[in-house]
Design goal:
Shape of chain A: globular
Distance between the termini of chain C: 24 Å
Largest interface: A-C, 22 and 18 residues
Number of strands of chain C: 5
Low-confidence stretches of chain C: none
CATH topology of chain C: Hypothetical Protein Ychn, Chain: A
Chains: A alpha/beta, B alpha/beta, C alpha/beta
Radius of gyration of chain A: 19 Å
Helix content of chain A: 25-40%
Radius of gyration of chain C: 14 Å
Order of helices and strands of chain C: EHEHEHEHE
Number of strands of chain A: 7
Structural class of chain A: alpha/beta
CATH class of the largest domain in chain A: Alpha Beta
Number of helices of chain A: 5
Oligomer: heterotrimer
Order of helices and strands of chain A: HEEEHEHEHEHE
CATH class of chain C: Alpha Beta
Shape of chain C: globular
Strand order of the largest sheet of chain C: 4-3-2-1-5
CATH topology of the largest domain in chain A: Hypothetical Protein Ychn, Chain: A
Mean pLDDT of chain A: 76
Distance between the termini of chain A: 44 Å
Number of helices of chain C: 4
Number of domains of chain C: 1
Largest sheet of chain C: 5 strands, parallel
CATH architecture of the largest domain in chain A: 3-Layer(aba) Sandwich
Structural class of chain C: alpha/beta
Low-confidence stretches of chain A: 1-11, 13-35, 48-61
Strand content of chain A: 15-25%
Chain lengths: ~180, ~130, ~120
């Protein structure tokens, strides 16, 4: 079963340290590739099922490492914002890198103590996720900086940043 | 110096395609502006961008005259001038009595399959509903 | 042009009071599968109402969702329903058509993983 010396699979830091939050480790577990051997977080061997005939890692084209979630409405409008946060937290538990982008009415969810969505966003930040806010919309809404959840990043050229995130940074994008 | 300048001027076309599906009309929410602004911004960055107006999103094509206040139709026209391809659902438009004479020039009303074609060539797809 | 992609359509509207949204969603879903794509319709929030059995909107003059669903399933589409949304609305699996698959919404990530795009209606 050991494939020591095999070509290093694409996207996998095989034979090297893999952090707990690594998407690859989560991917291995998710796909029941129990043949992969991890010792103290280091993958030291992979089963044949991890490799393609050409020696690269056999990834499903649907797998993703990063998820972007855009929220443009308040929590009261419908369940979407709350579900978005739950989805993001679940994705992080599964080792994905997650970013939230709040614009339009979505910025109201970033007011500290405003409800379950804000609580969830606090958790996202604590767990290493990103929460971006459109500064144009924060200003329009009249939300003072000191009322915003600590750790959010307010962006000046919000649309340019959002396009970069959507097209280059996030593998999947959901608009809730 | 001249070469540097022309390098800066040269538009860098990126090899990814973004498609945006707009399902809400102007003024009822900010989605029409957001969709159009995102389309314009992405196009300026060199991406290929498509927009499909569907359901109440078809009303956006009707906003064609000048306004002295925020004008979602104007954002759409700017995006089109920059090269964003915009199509509208023919059936949805017809249901709302939106004929080509009533709408912004350059927007083709077509069947749903044209959006499916957009999906087929896209790397990212965004839907705006709320 | 055939479409060789797997697309997830998340439906958050499902009632005749907001019929345009769910009707628009199923029309698009049918168009995609007709052109060779693979579509999963994920009913969440009010979208769960879309799959209730015994619907009869004849008095409203609106097309019956079940007819469109029937076409969708026949073309190879799949329908999944968020169990949490169902329960919070006082509904049970038996209130829905048989062909749907009930799933916990914590598995939504897996659905996203299995599809290239997620469109929300």
């Amino acid at each position: 079963m050991s494939m020591m010396g095999a070509p290093q699979p694409e996207g996998c830091s095989t034979f090297g340290p893999i952090p707990e939050s690594s998407g690859i480790r989560a991917w291995c577990m998710f796909n029941n590739l129990t043949g992969a051997i991890f010792i103290k977080g280091v993958c030291i061997a992979v089963p044949i099922s991890c490799t393609t005939k050409q020696g690269g890692i056999m990834t499903d084209p649907g797998k993703f490492d990063s998820l972007g979630i855009v929220i443009a409405h308040t929590a009261a409008v419908h369940e979407g914002a709350q579900q978005a946060v739950s989805l993001g937290l679940e994705a992080m538990r599964r080792g994905k890198r997650v970013g939230f982008f709040l614009l339009s009415d979505g910025v109201f969810n970033a007011i500290q103590g405003s409800g379950d969505v804000a609580t969830g966003l606090n958790q996202v930040i604590s767990d290493g996720g990103k929460v971006f806010l459109s500064s144009e919309h924060v200003l329009a809404a009249g939300i003072p900086t000191e009322k915003l959840i600590t750790g959010t990043e307010t962006l000046e050229k919000a649309y340019e940043a959002l396009v970069d995130l959507i097209m280059e940074d996030w593998d999947r994008v959901i608009i809730c | 110096m001249l070469e540097e300048k022309s390098a800066k001027i040269k538009k860098i076309e990126k090899d990814k395609t973004l498609s945006i599906l707009l399902l809400r009309g102007p003024y009822v929410s900010e989605y029409a502006e957001i969709a159009s602004t995102l389309a314009l911004t992405a196009r300026k960055k060199g991406y290929k961008v498509n927009m499909f107006l569907y359901l109440d999103g078809t009303w956006l094509q009707h906003i064609k005259e000048f306004k002295n206040f925020s004008n979602p139709g104007d954002w759409l026209k700017r995006a089109m001038r920059k090269g964003v391809t915009v199509r509208a659902c023919q059936r949805c438009s017809s249901a709302r009595d939106l004929t080509p004479d009533d709408t912004i020039k350059g927007i083709e009303q077509s069947g749903l399959y044209s959006f499916v074609d957009m999906l087929a060539e896209s790397d990212r797809v965004l839907t705006f509903i709320g | 042009m055939a479409i060789n992609k797997k697309i997830l359509i998340a439906l958050i509207h499902g009632t005749y009071g907001h019929h345009d949204d769910c009707y628009g969603a199923i029309q698009l879903a049918n168009a995609i599968v007709a052109k060779g794509g693979d579509v999963t319709l994920f009913l969440r929030s009010d979208g769960v109402y879309f799959a209730m059995k015994g619907q009869d909107p004849i008095g409203l003059g609106l097309p019956n969702n079940l007819d469109e669903i029937s076409d969708f399933l026949e073309l190879g589409g799949t329908i999944k329903v968020d169990s949490n949304a169902l329960a919070s609305r006082g509904l049970e699996p038996g209130d829905l058509i048989e062909e749907v698959e009930i799933m916990d919404n914590s598995l939504a990530i897996e659905l996203i993983e299995q599809h290239e795009f997620c469109l929300t209606f």
